[in-house]
Amino acid sequence: MKILIDGRSILSRKSGIGRYGEELIKGYVRHYGHDSVTVILNDRELQGLECKSIICPYGRHSIIGNIRFSRFLEKQEYDIFHSCDLTGPFWRKKQALHIITVHDLMLFKVRNFCSLPPIKACLRKLKFLFFYRRILRNADIIVSVSESTRKDVKEIYGLNSVVLREGINRLKRQSSSKPGLPIEPDGYFLYVGLAMPHKNVDFLIDTFLESRTDKKLVICGKGHKHISSDRIVYAGFADDSVLDYLYSNCAAFIFPSLYEGFGLPILEALSYHCRVFASDAASLGEFSDKVISFFKPTDKNRLKYLIENCDDIAIDTAEIDKYLEKFEWDDIWDEFHSYLKNYLYDQK
């Protein structure tokens, strides 16, 4: 069995999709052996990769680039092709099995997601509506990472998909040394994420500044517009060692998104036994209210209550650990490969 994985979305600075891609590779290697798995990369070798790789220089999201990628793929030998992101060929080999993972379709679900003038934003949506349709209609199996994403795939493209949740991205615990930030243990709330409209960070900042608390708000991630306030600390891009300290010592992790395909940072925070205050929008509402305190993504009063009463909200570590057992990568891939073997058997 020859497995070909499109890993072009795995970047040096790990995103949630990049971490998912690495775990996807590990899952195939564990089930089929490292000699059976080859990963397509853009322009560099992936460190620590226990399988073969090939370089494909073509971009993931341009029509011309994807035509070239489709031709490139025609020349490869494989039995299974699996894309760890919503990428793939415009046409495919009939003899091979094609699998596409969909993390989200927020381009079509989040208003003003593109941050472009209306006409350009409309043209961009139309382009990707066609782009993704061609890719998904060529897939034998579509994997959605949440029930919310499954519903979006069905609503927008009329296609069925199998839900396979994502797993915990456990950071390597460091010898936690305090980063050079003006914070104290248990003296700050933490947000980790990009400065995108759907992340709802302005709502978080406004609500926090209206709240009566002596704790600070630490914002991690690229692209955030700095507000002049000594109550807000901007950490910028944080590597794993800094995140390790911030998760370990925050009073609570806050995730206010308007839309998420899954919500990996929530699992990351729970793995540190953090208090988690999260929006219940889209897939986030699929998490358990036994381990998360929810608020509506526009309800300032509820979030203010959580912020101002944070210290009185108990953390049930035993309940968290029990809940996180559902999100161990090995178990998730065992579940997927059991499904895959049954699918291949039924096709004979």
Secondary structure topology:
Layout: E1 3-6, H1 16-32, E2 37-41, E3 52-55, H2 63-74, E4 80-83, E5 97-102, H3 106-109, H4 118-137, E6 141-144, H5 147-157, E7 162-163, E8 188-192, H6 201-210, E9 216-220, E10 232-236, H7 240-249, E11 252-255, H8 264-270, E12 276-279, E13 293-295, H9 300-308, H10 317-324, H11 329-347
Parallel strand pairs: 1-2, 1-4, 2-3, 4-5, 5-6, 6-7, 8-9, 8-11, 9-10, 11-12, 12-13
Care to count the β-strands?
A: 13
| Mean pLDDT over the residues | 91
Q: What characteristic shape results from the CA principal axes?
A: globular
Low-confidence stretches: none
- Total DSSP helices: 11
Largest sheet: 7 strands, parallel
Please trace the helix and strand order, writing H or E for each element: EHEEHEEHHEHEEHEEHEHEEHHH
Derived from helix and strand composition plus strand pairing, the structural class reads: alpha/beta
Radius of gyration: 21 Å
End-to-end gap: 15 Å
Strand order of the largest sheet: 3-2-1-4-5-6-7
- Strand-residue fraction? 15-25%
Helicity level, as a percent range? 25-40%
